[in-house]
Amino acid sequence: MTDTLTPADPAPADKAPAYQGPKRILSGIQASGSLHLGNYLGALKRFVEMQDDAPTFVFVADLHAITVPQDPALLGAQTREIAAAYLASGLDPGRSTIFPQSAVREHAELAWIFNCVARLGWLDRMTQFKEKSGKHKERSSVGLYTYPVLQAADILLYRATHVPVGEDQKQHLELTRDIAQKFNNDFGAPQGQPNFFPLPEPVIQGPATRVMSLRDGAAKMSKSDPSDQSRINLLDDADTIAAKVRKARTDPEPLPETLEELKTRAEADNLVGIYAALADEAKAAVLARFAGQGFGVFKPALAELAVEKLGPVTAEMRRLMADPAEIDRVLAAGAERAREVAAPILAETRAKVGFWQGGTV
Ligand code: TYM
Hints:
Elements: E1 25-30, H1 37-50, E2 56-61, H2 62-65, H3 72-89, E3 96-100, H4 106-115, H5 120-124, H6 127-133, H7 142-156, E4 162-164, H8 170-187, E5 201-203, H9 238-247, H10 259-262, H11 266-279, H12 283-290, H13 295-321, H14 324-353
């Protein structure tokens, strides 16, 4: 048992043979308020692109949502809204397991075990807690502080190997790897056996891993931005999307020819990245088409593309949200399938920790 770590120590280096289990993809989105273009391009669209690569688990993170105050009367509807977005974006419940996190109780139990594996010093370094708690750290919930530990449990409960996320989740994925490694070292396999948990890979790829605010190229597009003009919401109608793109902050220069020249122009870079992600093209290809043109030409083209790509998703989301029973069927079936994978892994983990094994509980 490694108990000599100081809080700032990294997880000890791994000596056992690498994890040898199958590839599994997993990700989640919090059930807190409306989704925006950043969530769509950085996460949702990527889940859909990956779902054929390996068994895929995608959940609605309602346990994470309550780390900040939520209205209990709305949380169920918010959960269905995220599920509707999954389905409307093209996640196929026949191929992907879609479920509410809280319906699989094993998440909370593994999170407790991991609370006893993770070190305070590791959590003290998490920048998202600092951002979210702001000046009122002592008034934040304890859950907000241990949020990344629950995230590690979400991932390792399924022995997921690949986790598609936006760039802002990179640090949480690093923590997940540290927790997996420390658990493997402390409780892991007998000598020579492969590791108990995989060290999951963050999959942060594509031209839109960090979509920025439409009002400020230095700020991330976020649901907590007080200005609705800063983001395109997945439920915005066509006119609203077009108006927001038209009003997006830019500079007076025409679009450049090279990516290098784009680097110093945050707002232009952001809009080109959004265009590229929506069109499934590289940013260089977008520049090749629009270099030398001003935003008077580029913005209407971007607005048209955004409406063309998001319109069908929005319409399908609205259709599904009008039929909660259909969503609930998908979520219930998904929860059952998820539990079938999670329960044996948790049972093995409990045994590793040494919990009483005298009977069935
Ligand atoms: P959430 O709901 O805050 O964000 C959901 C996903 O959207 C991505 N994202 C963005 N991508 C690009 N540009 C943006 N402006 C932008 N804003 C958000 C996030 O990176 C994320 O991928 N902690 C997770 C939820 C979670 C999770 C997990 C994810 C809980 N457990 C286990 C993966 C694995 C989150 O931040 O959700």
